[in-house]
Write a structure and sequence with these properties.
Elements lengths: L2 H8 L1 E2 L2 E2 H28 L10 H24 L4 H28 L8 H11 L2 H13 L11 H20 L18 H35 L2 H29 L4 H16 L1 H10 L5 H38 L5 H29 L1 H17 L5 H16 L4 E6 L13 E7 L1
Antiparallel strand pairs: 1-2, 3-4
Helix pairs in contact: 2-3, 2-4, 3-4, 3-11, 4-5, 4-6, 5-7, 6-7, 6-8, 7-8, 8-9, 9-10, 9-11, 12-13, 13-14, 14-15
Length: 438
């Protein structure tokens, strides 16, 4: 065993060696996967009509969640055991897996076995109060501690205590609220507390929810704070988390507006699936950021999302607007609707795709990626000048100017070969400095 290996094995992380921390992380991931598999088994054994039909896509996303979150958490925790982000994913996955298993187990016990299975009421009680606070608590801690595992500064400690304290009060109130359980209304809460004490605990639950929501908003604001003041590498890491979080928020807003303002089931479904898919992809983006794998690719992902998201929304608006307008014209002139409106709108969309994409790409580059846009324009102008310029000194000046403007180095020197045909084989070519800038 080498000295470096022995030092790595002897490294203590929170009372555990590096190897023990990795073993614990992957053990938690394996336990979550096993519990999730059992939950899926009980779900398949329970008639779907008993709890309402879940869509196949939602079940698939939940199954992915039960595998993805613990595996990514174990990967991060095993490589960076001092960073609590991986442990947050592992803990969230364990609580969520147990809660889903408890819900499915109690549903099977009450529906198929009519309550004769041991622990059905206890499982139903556990599932009724663990589901709501856990995702909010996980997101708030992730936003506050990412990417280094430490708070941005001591001033954010009240936000951390607000999140932890609010979650604890919300958990407690949900566990002792009297009446039918939220997961299974046929069962009364076995530990429900009534009377003045129950009223006080219910009030604490409301206060805890408010504190938790305020903490979540403040933790999201901490991402913006660090995006503006963090180092270049930290800003790139933060983009990996801010990207799926922003997509999830926009999807939720779209689903709410489409459902409650426009009454559109299609818009509601698109927003819902966009939000939940972005939320479930959050651990993948977090792992990329912490492990620092292809860190700067996030700029390409954001750029393509802005371009094609705007392009899709524009084309959809043009398509449906064109159909409505053409159908009205057909009604005016022919007094009947025609499928030609759909055909004409489709042809317009096909003709507008590339021109719109180029214009939107140029606008996005000018508005959000100004430095890269200016650099590309500078290189295009130099390429055009290179075809016509014959003066070597002028080309040298132009080349140094382009490098200085696009790459912004501290020092630039241009060296040119003075003789391209050496006198003797093996002679080193001579170089001459033609332009230097500091």
């Amino acid at each position: 065993m080498t000295e470096g290996a022995s030092e790595q094995e002897g490294q203590v992380v929170g009372g555990l060696s590096h190897r023990a921390a990795a073993w614990l992380a992957w053990s938690l991931a394996a336990v979550c996967v096993v519990i999730g598999t059992l939950a899926l088994l009980f779900h398949l054994l329970t008639p779907s009509g008993s709890k309402g039909a879940f869509s196949l896509g939602l079940n698939a996303l939940i199954a992915i969640f039960l595998v993805l979150y613990p595996v990514v958490g174990a990967l991060v925790a095993s490589r960076h055991p001092r960073n609590p982000i991986g442990w947050i994913f592992c803990g969230t996955s364990l609580v969520a897996a147990v809660g889903i298993f408890a819900d499915e187990y109690s549903g099977y016990a009450l529906t198929v076995r009519h309550g004769s299975v041991l622990g059905a009421k206890v499982m139903a009680w556990f599932a009724s109060w663990t589901g709501e606070p856990t995702p909010l608590l996980s997101l708030a801690l992730l936003f506050l501690l990412f990417p280094t595992g430490r708070l941005p500064s001591r001033r954010w400690r009240p936000v951390l205590w607000s999140v932890i304290g609010g979650s604890a009060m919300f958990y407690l109130a949900g566990a002792v609220t009297p009446g039918p359980l939220q997961a299974h209304e046929a069962i009364a809460n076995p530990v429900g507390i009534r009377g003045p004490l129950g009223d006080v605990l219910g009030m604490l639950g409301t206060i805890g929810l408010i504190l938790l929501l305020i903490g979540c908003l403040a933790s999201a604001f901490s991402l913006i704070f660090r995006l503006r003041r963090g180092s270049a590498q930290e800003r790139q890491q933060l983009k990996w988390v801010a990207y799926p979080a922003t997509i999830a928020v926009l999807g939720s807003v779209l689903a709410y507006v489409a459902s409650n303002v426009f009454g559109s089931n299609l818009g509601n479904a698109i927003g819902f699936w966009t939000a939940i898919s972005a939320f479930f992809s959050l651990p993948i983006f977090t792992a990329f950021a912490i492990i620092k794998y292809r860190l700067y690719d996030i700029d390409i992902i954001i750029n393509r999302t802005l371009v094609y998201g705007t392009l899709t929304a524009t084309l959809v608006g043009v398509y449906f607007g064109g159909i409505v307008l053409l159908q009205r014209l057909f009604l005016v002139f022919t007094r009947e609707q025609s499928t030609l409106a759909v055909v004409a709108s489709t042809l317009v969309i096909a003709a507008l795709f590339n021109p719109l994409r180029r214009r939107i790409q140029a606008f996005i580059d000018r508005r959000f990626y100004r430095s890269k846009y200016d650099a590309r324009k500078t290189l295009e102008a130099f390429s055009a000048k290179l075809r016509d310029e014959t003066d070597l000194d002028a080309l040298s000046d132009d080349l140094v100017g382009v490098v200085r403007e696009t790459m912004q180095p501290d020092h630039v020197s241009l060296w040119l070969r003075s003789d391209t045909t050496p006198n003797l084989i093996g002679d080193a070519p001579e170089f001459q400095s033609r332009h230097t800038w500091s």
